[in-house]
Write a structure and sequence with these properties.
2 copies of one chain form a homodimer.
Chain A (H helix, E strand, L loop, with lengths): L46 H6 L1 H12 L25 H8 L8 H9 L4 H16 L9 H11 L24 E2 L2 E2 L1 E5 L10 E5 H7 L4 H14 L5
Chain lengths: ~240, ~240
């Protein structure tokens, strides 16, 4: 049975406020455990990966907290990457804070940006979930004790080799993070429902699978496959 | 049973040489019927669509004879669109005639361009096949008698409503040619085997389906679907 980052438990967080360096107001706070040593941070679970596999840690931070842009970047895309919580603000606030007039963007682009909106808390939870999934990949480095405990308290045992592509469900190798064609990683973060940004709904997927799913929900995509296979006579 | 543009018959062509205006030597000739009236042309079967639905006629010509580029266009893409027969020439000829040094392109881009190579004759046959398929779409204009006879002699009856997406096999509406999102048509030409450019292997497909198939052959793509559905427990 493939694993999903479904919340299985809770942690008592430190919760001290963190400085917000972005244009968009948000109550950032420390997600390290209550009474922790050292500096406060909202990504303490990424400290080890940031040393062992910097690109993976950065990818997790970026995909968890920002809208994507590369795939549909163009003159009228408005933002390349922007904090997901900014997309919860009304148009006039976005204009005032970032100088981008959402109403001037095409309807499709506006929808695409708004679809990626998520609260700061959901973004942090997605980062936690993706970190747990990365450690669950075959060939992943083992987390240090404190980070292992942290992630296990939230999502259950960290077992290398059980993380699979959220779409095709084949096991994912940690080494795929390093492979990239034409600047694009072979592993992408993927949403079962493209409009929901929570750990239960976000995982890693092969680039091919993620592109194939497109804008569909994963359930719709599987149903589409069934319909196609039925039409071509490969399914009764 | 969905139709495919499989050659069912032959035509006696005029065959008179046509001027070649491109950089790449090719023996262009007239593909109108022997003894035809009017000017010689290698696209006589597109004359009616060029008046009734110019974008469709141009798309057929372009997709049949040129490599695509938009999807992977970048600084090192070498060509945006180039005649498919040019990609049959050795590297030094391409450099001499077009000023593009293929050996300077990444291996992936070189392969992508070379995969799209096709003879002039195959390109014309693909254009004929795509024209026949376009007239077979629900809501397509009826071809004038001479063009209908021409296409039927090659591929069999032109029956509106029988042309389906070559990938998902759902019927295709001619009106979809007009719909475009972000400048990209909702109908694309698609290859069952991405590396074979013949009428039997080329058809029209939904943009979504074509993107989903990616670089796979259609058979591999269907097999991939079966594997996925089996993994997620939707298929025994």
């Amino acid at each position: 049975v493939p694993q999903d980052p479904v919340a299985r438990g809770q942690l008592r967080y430190c919760g001290k406020p963190l400085a917000n360096r972005s244009r968009f107001a948000v109550d950032k706070r420390c997600f390290d455990v209550a009474g922790h040593a050292g500096r406060c941070s909202d990504f303490p679970y990424l400290k080890h990966l940031a040393r062992e596999a910097k690109n993976v840690a950065e990818k997790i931070k970026r995909d968890a907290t920002k809208t994507t842009g590369a795939a549909w970047l163009s003159d009228d895309a408005g933002f390349n990457r922007v904090q997901r919580w900014a997309m919860l603000l009304p148009d006039d606030e976005v204009l005032r804070l970032a100088g981008v007039d959402m109403t001037k963007l095409s309807e499709g682009v506006q929808r695409k940006l708004r679809d990626k909106a998520a609260t700061y808390d959901d973004c942090i939870h997605v980062a936690q979930g993706l970190t747990w999934l990365a450690y669950g990949m075959a060939g992943a480095p083992a987390p240090p004790r404190d980070i292992g405990d942290y992630l296990e308290a939230l999502f259950g045992p960290v077992e290398p080799g059980v993380t699979s592509c959220v779409i095709c469900r084949a096991p994912l190798e940690f080494s795929l993070f390093r492979l990239a064609r034409r600047g694009r990683a072979e592993i992408e973060s993927a949403h079962k429902n493209p409009r929901v940004h929570t750990p239960e709904n976000v995982g890693f997927a092969h680039r091919f699978c993620n592109i194939a799913q497109g804008d569909m929900t994963l359930d719709d995509f599987y149903e589409w496959m069934e319909t196609v296979l039925r039409r071509v006579g490969r399914l009764a």
